[in-house]
Specification:
Helix content is 38%, strand content 20%. The protein is of the alpha+beta class. Keywords: Hydrolase.
Length: 323
C-alpha cells in the first residue's frame, strides 16, 4: 500500500502578486471511457478515505436493497447539502415516506453549511441538529432502506448491521477494490477505504449507466439521473459541485472532506483526486483541469475553476493547476 503523502506530486500552486505563495500536493487519476488511465499524477492506486465522495456508491447499494424514492430524494441521499429550506423539506419528506421522523436520525448534530441558512436557523432559536447536518439526506435514506428491507432501524450505523454490510459490499463491487479499512466518518456512519482509481472507476460506471425514465434504469443509472438532474440538491447554492453539474450536461460530481473529489461523465470517462493536506481551496481548480484532460470543453468549467487569491477583497492572484 502506497503512503498517501510520500507518493504525492504538486497539483496546484497559489500565486499572489506574481509569486508562488504555496503549493498543494496530491494525486489525480483520469480514466478514459474504456477505463484505461488517460492521466495519472502521483499514485492512482493510493488507498484513501473517499469521505462523502462515497455517497453516490452507497446510494446504489440502498437502491439495490429496496430504497424507492423520487430523484430529488435520491439526490439528497448522495448529498453533502447546505441545509437550505429546500434540502430540509426533502429530507423530512424522505423520512415521512418511510413512517419515520427526525428523531430517528442518528447522524452527528451540526449547523447548516450555508451561512445564510445557519443564521436563519440560529435566529429561530435552534442549535446544531441532525436534520441540518450535511449528511442528513444520506442518513434518512439509510433509515428508509432499512424499512424497505425489513431491517431494524435501531443501530443502523453499526458496521455489523445488515444495511452497512450491504453498503460495504456495494462499494467494493462498484470500485473493484476490496475494502481494506473501515472507520467512522464525521457524520457517524461507517466509512470504507478504496483506491483513487477505484473511486474513478465507480464514477465512470455510474456516469455511463443507462438512466432513462422508467423501471428499466439500473440503480447506477438512477443515481446518475438524480444527481445530474438535480445538482442543487447534491450540494446547494454557490457550491462548486452544483455549479459543475449545471455547467456540464450529464456530469455527476461529488466532493468529499479532506481534499477529495470525484466525477463521472456520460461517456464513462471519470476523474478522482486527493489533495493530501486536506485543503478544499484547490479542489475545484484541480478537478476542472482533470475534467478538461478527460475531454470536457475548458470553457464549460472555466467559471468554476477560477479560484482568486484576494488582497483587501480584490483579486491579486489565483490558484492555478500544475497540469
Amino acid at each position: 500500500m502506497t503512503d498517501v503523502f510520500t507518493s504525492a506530486v504538486p497539483l496546484a500552486r497559489v500565486v499572489r502578486g506574481g509569486l508562488v505563495e504555496s503549493v498543494h500536493a496530491g494525486h489525480v487519476v483520469v480514466l478514459a471511457p474504456d477505463g484505461e488511465v488517460r492521466l495519472a499524477l502521483g499514485d492512482p492506486d493510493v488507498t484513501v478515505w473517499a469521505r462523502s465522495s462515497l455517497k453516490p456508491l452507497q446510494a446504489v447499494g440502498m437502491l439495490r436493497h429496496g430504497l424507492d424514492v423520487d430523484d430529488e430524494a435520491l439526490a439528497l441521499a448522495c448529498a453533502s447539502h447546505n441545509a437550505q429550506d429546500g434540502h430540509l423539506d426533502v429530507v423530512r419528506a424522505l423520512l415521512a415516506g418511510a413512517g419515520l421522523t427526525e428523531a430517528d436520525l442518528d447522524n452527528t448534530p451540526d449547523w447548516p453549511l450555508d451561512a445564510d441558512a445557519a443564521f436563519a436557523w440560529r435566529a429561530q432559536g435552534r442549535g446544531p441538529e441532525a436534520l441540518t447536518q450535511n449528511c442528513s439526506g444520506k442518513h434518512a435514506a439509510m433509515l428508509a432502506t432499512c424499512v424497505a428491507a425489513g431491517w431494524p432501524t435501531a443501530g443502523y450505523r453499526d458496521p455489523g448491521h445488515p444495511l452497512q454490510r450491504a453498503l460495504h459490499d456495494a462499494v467494493a463491487e462498484l470500485t473493484g477494490v476490496a475494502v481494506a479499512h473501515t472507520t467512522v466518518d464525521g457524520c457517524g456512519a461507517p466509512l470504507f477505504s478504496t483506491t483513487l482509481a477505484g473511486l474513478a472507476r465507480a464514477f465512470g460506471r455510474l456516469g455511463r449507466a443507462p438512466h432513462d425514465e422508467g423501471h428499466a434504469a439500473t440503480p447506477e443509472g438512477r443515481v446518475a439521473r438524480a444527481m445530474a438532474g438535480h445538482p442543487w440538491h447534491v450540494a446547494g447554492s454557490g457550491r462548486d459541485a452544483t455549479r459543475l453539474m449545471q455547467a456540464v450536461p450529464g456530469l455527476i460530481a461529488k466532493d468529499g472532506a479532506d481534499g477529495v473529489y470525484a466525477a463521472g461523465l456520460p461517456d464513462g470517462g471519470a476523474v478522482a483526486l486527493k489533495v493530501v493536506d486536506g485543503a478544499a481551496r484547490p479542489r475545484a481548480t484541480v478537478l476542472a483541469a482533470a475534467l478538461v484532460a478527460a475531454g470536457v470543453d475548458a470553457a464549460q468549467v472555466a467559471d468554476v475553476a477560477a479560484t482568486p487569491v484576494l488582497g483587501h477583497g480584490v483579486p491579486v492572484g489565483a490558484v492555478e493547476p500544475t497540469f
